[in-house]
Design brief:
The complex is a heterodimer.
Chain A: H1 4-13, H2 17-22, H3 40-45, E1 58-63, E2 71-75, H4 77-94, E3 101-105, H5 113-123, E4 127-131, H6 137-147, E5 151-154, H7 156-166, E6 173-176, H8 183-193, E7 196-203, E8 206-210, E9 218-220, E10 225-230, E11 244-250, E12 261-270, E13 282-288, E14 292-294, E15 300-302, H9 303-314, E16 320-326, E17 331-337, H10 343-351, H11 355-362, E18 366-371
Parallel strand pairs in A: 3-4, 3-5, 5-6, 6-7, 17-18
Antiparallel strand pairs in A: 1-2, 7-8, 8-9, 9-13, 10-11, 11-12, 12-13, 14-15, 16-17
Chain B: H1 3-13, H2 16-22, H3 46-49, E1 57-66, E2 69-76, H4 77-93, E3 101-105, H5 113-124, E4 127-130, H6 137-149, E5 154-157, H7 159-171, E6 182-185, H8 192-202, E7 205-211, E8 216-220, E9 227-228, E10 234-239, E11 250-256, E12 264-276, E13 288-294, E14 298-301, E15 305-308, H9 309-318, E16 323-334, E17 337-346, H10 352-367, H11 371-378, E18 382-390, E19 401-406
Parallel strand pairs in B: 3-4, 3-5, 5-6, 6-7, 16-19, 17-18
Antiparallel strand pairs in B: 1-2, 7-8, 8-9, 9-13, 10-11, 11-12, 12-13, 14-15, 16-17
Helix pairs in contact in B: 4-5, 6-7, 7-8
Classes of the chains: A alpha/beta, B alpha/beta.
Chain lengths: 374, 412
């Protein structure tokens, strides 16, 4: 039986050009499994003409997209209120909703995560110190030293890169988001900062959930998000505790509704009770369905995009190997190619692949080396 | 004295900073109250400047200051809402409507310009694209497609960034079509030449606005002859060097009537100007502030950064040598990017190796003389060069003389 709110959302979404086309064969009576998926490629290609004509104020943020075309996300006041409420809910689970001084160290423009964390934290009763990730270490050091935050909200890779200037005895909680926090890094950061770390999970398309003090999966609010998992081979719906691709539906009437969005993340869901005592279900993330390479600050590059560049540039299939060499302040993407005559062209095309690769290359965070096998 | 000023004074009286500054005197006239200074915003003294409990603060933004001691500007949620409402009201006076699609190319947190413009425009009902402070060619080229694709018709930015945007656009002539109705600038002075260039390239009328981290002040109307400001929001005085009222123009002093976390009473902006109360032909009843330049204590560089002489003197004092003369050349390295050359003279007898070492040390100290200066150097918007010479002339006063020579085509 389709949830009533979901049905309302689906009907509302049909007023957009995107969903009108996507749902043209849906009819009036349908089950959740009949509703077509929203593929990431649609979002990459659509322009503002695919959204509702609305008189509302809209705030537009971007994420990367291939061929240098960033995906745009239009956020209405309703979306901002939704994000504020959800972040407040997340901070309640983290035990930091109210009276905290939060240094929010991440991008403050272009990508929306910084803005939403700011408005959500203020809504939760905290004071915020917005610190852009493009600042020099000296400036970040001054800001932390002077403001003496009690909570630090950031990306794992930024914490790693800036850790010596971020350490401050007043910080008791670190909130991470934006990219996977691997256990080794969590342990290292926890010891270095002597603070509790709460990792939050989300996509640019929607906030998903947060760890509780058990640090075992991410609690999510089923009133706000509908999560499904699908078999990786057959797209059949899966039961609790089975690993499959996460499908996200954001239960909010946004100018760009997110309904059955294929996240590309391999996850499992459990409705079993958490030892923390909360009844909210949890989701665990294993990795990406598609083969990707994590570059830096939560930026991934799909392997197939790199393969296409090599194929297009060399004009034929050639043997290759990708290696990632991580340094505290940058990563090296090493491409081993037998035939690397056009290596400058390959480097340039990867740098210009999307906004994130361009941004990271310009700031010397991503270095690309093409070389012959030794 | 207006009731709003009385309320502001009452609020300020609860603050230790003003109690010390004003003593126990009860001044008969507002103009008799001593002027505030940057100590009002020194983070270490925050508790002596706050008029509200610290738990009531929602936002902390920052501004320049001296080395390691930036100005910290706290806001309560209500105060922030008031600030963005007024900024929005000013944008509305410049003809911005809810149908506009506005890109913001300004710096964001910890700086205040970007976030307050964003919230002001959202409150007006505009569609807002918070882009940030981009200055590299490839990043700007990427923006042109965004402007075209999303039909952006207004750009809110700083003159140096507008200049960079125009320069990169002109270089790629014919490859993109960016049409703008308006460009709203803040943070730096904009020349008529640049305004004309922006008009020719994008068809845009440029409206300059006047603001500082402490307060948004006002905006030009279509007459473009001064910044209209709402006297119910900001009370402005102009004073001579002895702090006496000087109607024909002098140091601009502001009192921000809605300031509550830190009450701002008689705070010098570091600018020269005059208040014009004659009716404007645009029909706006608000008075205007006519901006006449920076005081000798300050100069501006690309990226909306003001450098004040106390910041430089603080850096010199840390260098371990006596800098007797400082001649600053402001040059345009490329469109919208500056080169600041510090020609420094010391009476210390130094050999060539020591001079080189001290030059490097001074460059580092100057780079760190304020957070926002450090930021624009880090962003490659400004480059810094220090030339240190031994001054073999007659022994002079230990007080450093600072002279600024602005050689930029588009003086900001």
């Amino acid at each position: 039986m389709l949830d009533k709110n979901l049905k309302v959302l689906i009907e509302y979404s049909k007023t957009t050009k995107l969903y009108k086309e996507l749902y043209k064969n849906l009819g009036d009576e349908y089950q959740l499994t009949d509703v077509p998926f929203l593929e990431p490629a649609y979002l990459r290609e659509i322009g503002p003409e695919y959204f509702l004509n609305t008189d509302e104020a809209l705030c537009v943020y971007f994420t990367s997209g291939t061929t240098s075309k960033p995906k745009a996300f239009y956020h209405s006041p309703k979306d901002i209120t939704y994000a504020k409420d959800y972040i407040k809910w997340i901070q309640e689970i983290e035990g930091i909703a109210g009276g905290e001084k939060m240094a929010i160290f991440m991008d403050q423009s272009f990508w929306g995560i910084g803005y939403f964390t700011i408005v959500g934290s203020v809504h939760a009763g905290n004071a915020v110190i917005p610190i852009d990730s493009g600042l020099s270490k000296e400036v970040v050091a001054d800001l932390i030293r002077i403001s003496k935050p009690t909570v630090l909200s950031s990306l794992p890779s930024l914490l790693e890169e800036y850790k010596e200037v971020l350490r401050c005895p007043t910080i008791r909680v670190i909130e991470t988001t934006g990219e996977p926090l691997v256990p080794e890094m969590r342990k290292e950061l926890q010891e270095y900062f002597n603070a509790d770390i709460y990792d939050a999970y989300g996509l640019t398309e929607g906030i998903i959930g947060v760890e509780c003090s058990q640090h075992d999966g991410y609690h999510f609010d089923p009133q706000r998000n509908l999560l499904e998992t699908l078999d990786l081979d057959t797209d059949e719906g899966l039961q609790d505790e089975q690993w499959g691709e996460l499908i996200l539906t954001v239960l909010n009437q946004s100018p760009l509704p997110i309904i059955r969005y294929r996240s590309g993340d391999v996850c499992k869901i459990s409705h079993g009770k958490c030892p923390c005592g909360r009844n909210f279900p949890r989701v665990w993330v294993k990795g990406r369905k598609e083969q990707t390479i994590l570059l830096y600050e939560g930026s991934y590059v799909p392997v197939k995009d790199l393969e296409k560049i090599i194929f297009d540039t060399c004009g034929k299939s050639v043997p290759y190997e990708f290696n990632i060499i991580r340094n505290p302040n940058f990563v090296i993407l090493e491409i081993i190619l037998d035939d690397c005559k056009q290596k400058d062209q390959i480097v340039s095309r990867i740098q210009n692949l999307n906004y994130e690769t361009l941004y990271l290359s310009k700031r010397n965070k991503l270095r690309i080396v093409v070389k012959k096998p030794e | 004295m207006s009731s709003q000023l009385s309320i502001l004074l009452d609020r300020a009286r609860s603050v230790p900073y003003y109690n010390i500054l004003w003593g126990k005197s009860n001044y008969a006239n507002f103009a008799e109250y001593p002027l505030a200074d940057k100590k009002l915003f020194v983070p270490n003294n925050l508790s002596s400047s706050l008029a509200v409990p610290e738990k009531n603060i929602s936002y902390y933004y920052f501004s320049a200051g001296s080395t390691g001691n930036p100005k910290m500007i706290p806001f309560t949620a209500k105060e922030w809402a008031g600030r963005v409402r007024y900024r929005g009201e000013c944008y509305k006076k410049a003809g911005v409507t809810k149908n506009d699609r506005v890109a913001i190319l300004l710096s964001f947190g910890p700086w205040i310009a970007g976030p307050s413009a964003q919230d002001a425009l959202l409150q007006l009902g505009c569609t807002v694209f918070p882009i940030g402070q981009l200055s590299e060619d490839e990043e700007i080229v990427g923006l042109f497609s965004i402007f075209e694709r999303h039909k952006i018709n207004i750009l809110v930015t700083a003159p140096s960034l507008a200049q960079r945007f125009a320069y990169v656009y002109a270089k790629r002539k014919g490859k993109h079509t960016v049409k703008l109705d308006k460009i709203i600038t803040s943070g730096e002075f904009i020349t008529d030449t640049l305004k004309k260039q922006l008009q020719q390239l994008f068809g845009a009328e440029t409206f300059s606005s006047y603001a500082s981290s402490e307060s948004f002040i006002g905006i030009e109307c279509r007459q473009h002859n001064g910044f209209h400001y709402n006297p119910d929001e900001v009370f402005i005085e102009t004073l001579d060097d002895k702090n006496r009222p000087k109607d024909e123009g002098g140091n601009i002093i502001i009192s921000v009537l809605g300031s509550s976390a830190i009450p701002i009473v008689r705070y010098p902006m570091g600018d020269l100007g005059a208040v014009d109360i004659t009716p404007c032909s645009c029909g706006n009843s608000w008075p205007k502030i006519l901006w006449k330049g920076r005081t000798h204590e300050a100069f501006s560089v690309a990226g909306q950064v003001s450098i004040r002489s106390y910041q430089l003197k603080d850096a010199f004092a840390r260098s371990g040598i006596l800098v007797t003369r400082c001649e600053i050349e402001l040059l345009e390295r490329e469109a919208g990017k500056d080169l600041v050359v510090f020609n420094l003279y010391t009476i210390n007898q130094l050999n060539s190796v020591e001079l080189e070492e001290k030059e490097k040390a001074l460059e580092n100290l100057l780079k760190h003389s304020s957070m926002d200066f450090n930021d624009v150097i880090h962003q490659n918007i400004v480059k810094l060069k220090v030339i240190l010479r031994s001054d073999l002339g007659p022994r002079v006063s230990p007080k450093t003389k600072i002279k600024v020579c602005d050689k930029r085509e588009h003086v900001r």
